Amino acid sequence: MDHAGPALEARGLTKDFDVGLRGRRLRALDNVNLRVEAGEVFGLLGANGSGKSTLLKIALGLLRASGGECAVLGRPAGVRAVRRSVGYLPESPAFFPHLTGREVVRYFAALSGCAGKAGAARADEVLAQVGLQAAADRAAGGYSKGMRQRLGLAQALVHDPDLLILDEPTAGVDVVGAAAIDALIAGLRARGKTIVLTSHTVTQIAALCDRVTVLERGRVTLSGEVKTLAAGNGRTWNWAAPNDAAAEQLARWLAERGWPAPTPADDRGRLEQILLAATQGERRDA
Ligand SMILES: Nc1ncnc2c1ncn2[C@@H]1O[C@H](COP(=O)(O)OP(=O)(O)OP(=O)(O)O)[C@@H](O)[C@H]1O
């Protein structure tokens, strides 16, 4: 879908939920402004209950905003023409347990208008892309958490969307599986896709994202380029890599941009501290 301007834009976005019997309301999003440029990986960070999923659901047209505006690929969030160009990985993807992985992806391919031989070929392509070809004929009900996430990614990718919205893509996935998903996201970015992801993992945000916005109790507390936040006033920062693969990935990502290599960290890094400081308010679900 051709469009000019940002892939996702929220202006003064507010969402109230009715909670309780006495008309009590909970403000899940409070005047949120953000802009995701086409082709970037954008991270949304925030404690549980800070409003990340609510924002994504409004962008997807699954929830209606109480105030403000949300535009996706140049159109109001949720309009049909936009849905075709957006892929979504929900927080805990669930599938018909008796369908095989291949059947699940073919089903989603058909839903997006790609049925028959073309749908089958496209399903095989994305199953290979997420590394599930060997398990493709097993029932999805028996998949591990990491495999379910990868199957969720396959269904999000099957219609070749321009914008991918990934709600905690590596939640509950072991380090090897998470590194594979991170590599897949980096590969999608290299192919020009726009990716918006939520994460609780600061290292994932640092390794993958061009820009990050931090939400706290529905409000934006910090927003900026990872590069700028990390560099501070030209200072270097420390970063604790969860494993060698992640360290190499980050080093490559920095080198591609001509930024200094990270120094091995013996404690939490500067970027991590900055991001954590922005999420430090009282947790809503505490
Ligand atoms: N349908 C709903 N009805 C009432 N309250 C809701 C609803 N959906 C979300 N909320 C509330 O809105 C706030 C924001 O929730 P949201 O799921 O967007 O947070 P989140 O940042 O995605 O959290 P997590 O990291 O746990 O996924 C929370 O206090 C949550 O309880």
From TrEMBL:
Keyword Nucleotide-binding carried by entry: yes
Gene3D superfamilies hit by this protein: P-loop containing nucleotide triphosphate hydrolases
Molecular-function annotations in GO: ATP binding; ATP hydrolysis activity
PROSITE patterns linked: ABC_TRANSPORTER_1 (PS00211), ABC_TRANSPORTER_2 (PS50893)
Keyword Nucleotide-binding: yes
All copies of domain ABC transporter, residue ranges: 8-242
Keyword field: ATP-binding, Nucleotide-binding, Transport
InterPro entries per the UniProt record, alphabetical: AAA+_ATPase (IPR003593), ABC_transporter-like_ATP-bd (IPR003439), ABC_transporter-like_CS (IPR017871), P-loop_NTPase (IPR027417)
Xref: SUPFAM superfamilies: P-loop containing nucleoside triphosphate hydrolases (SSF52540)
Ranges that cross the membrane: none
Family: Belongs to the ABC transporter superfamily.
Protein name as it appears in the record: ABC transporter ATP-binding protein
Taxonomic path: Bacteria, Pseudomonadati, Verrucomicrobiota, Opitutia, Opitutales
